Amino acid sequence: MPIHSKRPTIKEVASAAGVSTQTVSRVVNGRPDVSDETRSRVQTIIKDLGYRPSAIARSLIQQRSYTLGVVTAGLKFIGPSRTLNGITSAAEEAGYSLLLKEMSHFHANDIVPRLNSLYGMHVDGIIWAVPEIGDNRSWVNDLSIDLPIPILYLAMEPREGVSVVSINNYLGGRLAVTHLVEQGYKHIGHISGPLDWWEARQRMAAWKDVMSEAGKTIKDHHWVEANWSSASAVPAMEKLYNQYPEIDAIFVANDQMALAVTKFVCERGLRIPQDIAIVGFDDIAEAAYYTPPLTTVRQDQHKLGAVAVQEVIKIIEENKNENHVEESRTIMLTPTLVVRESSTRQKEVQK
Amino acid sequence: MPIHSKRPTIKEVASAAGVSTQTVSRVVNGRPDVSDETRSRVQTIIKDLGYRPSAIARSLIQQRSYTLGVVTAGLKFIGPSRTLNGITSAAEEAGYSLLLKEMSHFHANDIVPRLNSLYGMHVDGIIWAVPEIGDNRSWVNDLSIDLPIPILYLAMEPREGVSVVSINNYLGGRLAVTHLVEQGYKHIGHISGPLDWWEARQRMAAWKDVMSEAGKTIKDHHWVEANWSSASAVPAMEKLYNQYPEIDAIFVANDQMALAVTKFVCERGLRIPQDIAIVGFDDIAEAAYYTPPLTTVRQDQHKLGAVAVQEVIKIIEENKNENHVEESRTIMLTPTLVVRESSTRQKEVQK
DNA sequence: CTGAAAGCGCTAACAC
DNA sequence: GTGTTAGCGCTTTCAG
What we know:
alpha/beta; homodimer; DNA-binding; 6-stranded parallel β-sheet
């Protein structure tokens, strides 16, 4: 029993079994060209010594680590975690390990050390799972930091020459606002996320577009910007309600903010959805348990992560073909509307 | 400009600079014993060639990877993610990389392949961040899977011979129930988490203990078991309310379930906290925006993760001393009570 | 079916 | 200051 002993090497196994390291290697890798007798003897020794092959020595010689680098941000929020959850399960399934880096803030632009660190550990590909905010994507076409491995980007505006997997936030926004229009609401306001976020801009653009298609004129006092948090939505909602008293429905850019809006409306003695309808975005697990249950746009962030892993592995495999020309791809996942009580003024609910 | 070219090696840099690989190594590692002239020449070449040192080759020779393995579960929930967030930031600060594995379910007992995989990648230590559930810790004292690197366990009952960092759930439960007793509530029920979880049992034990210390007799119909989710709390609360109609306060084992309880109470036309008080556990970001804002026990899961990293690194460092006897340590973090409106029947709120 | 030699990219130890 | 040698643990290649 190897109690806190040194790591046994393939050499030790070989000499204990009276064979060459080659043969041990063959056994470990399940190669067919070993006699059954030798195989079982070696396997016994491996067990006895507690031998575990070194994946990094293998990576070094094979120039392939079966490891993916993941760069994320904001794990304390549920969105990025759900995505990471999708990444881990797809990676596990595909037999890849994951090297994780979290940026300390969303805006951080010290990209190069992260990239170098991952590349130095011989990752076969990188998933850049930090959302697009401000100019934090300015480096993607910077040739000086180009790496000989693929990088797949999540949650950003599709771009020429890079591979991207995103959820279609614009479509999600359209689903939300169209639903409110169809329910007969006339004065539909918006509480947006921080507008340096691409996703927040997409959701807001959808609100504007659907409203003008419905023949309404958007005014500046019909919306307020907040920062995704429940806390930020309180003053935002107060401001919006004061400057737009006719408001009878609100498209809130995420469910956390919708919770605070619900509280505000409830405290004013207004009824949801009779006086004011609310539609959120995300479909967090709690949304169905708000009072009343929240209509919201469901985005499958788990799938976002899983697809990212599959795509980056696909690119890695393709690049093994010498004469393969790497081409970038863009995938947009489609969100869906989940109708609950917070927005159904009319009795005939279309589920 | 190295556009998707091969990884340049130290040898190529050396010959391009007309020096030995040793000298390049010295420059890369910032050793002082290189002339300024040589250093700058080498640095220029490194830039030009886009050379990035191979961390795994370095790990191989130094027998030290500056990488930690993290095994987690349930990233789609906010608790484990907050802990992981603490782990990533502390690891980053300490200069360690992270290899992440997520168990597909909390109960999973295919421990060995995970451990071997991490060990095979030469991690210097492991943080086992899966909560203790059922017998999913039965292996910790199994000598046959003992590794020559330290494993630090999170969120489990302290045990002889292993290092553990946990939050004191029992104390947290005491804070919650004591508060309700002090507020003058007489019929304090409990909705527990799944009782195969150590943390759920601790919270429940605290409820029982404080109640009997207050001279109350706990009956079986005073509590119901649920499974942490808002969804599970709906039938649980219905059952509890029916079987215990005198109930005037509830200690709910987490904030998600407390949300559903809030909704239930609200829909029955009962007032919180006048008719029924609610205290949760976790202090998720949204708890302050429930209607009414939720009194809850704050556990600093971010810190839990950060402390885990610091501790495991401490053990790694200590083990470098030949004659150091590894001793296990137990750290218990202390939760705090956050009093909000959902439990303050008396006007004089002690903040 | 099995083994010997070479080397992945790097650094420790020692020489000069 | 700088170079040489050896080797971390493994797999590839080729020989037998």
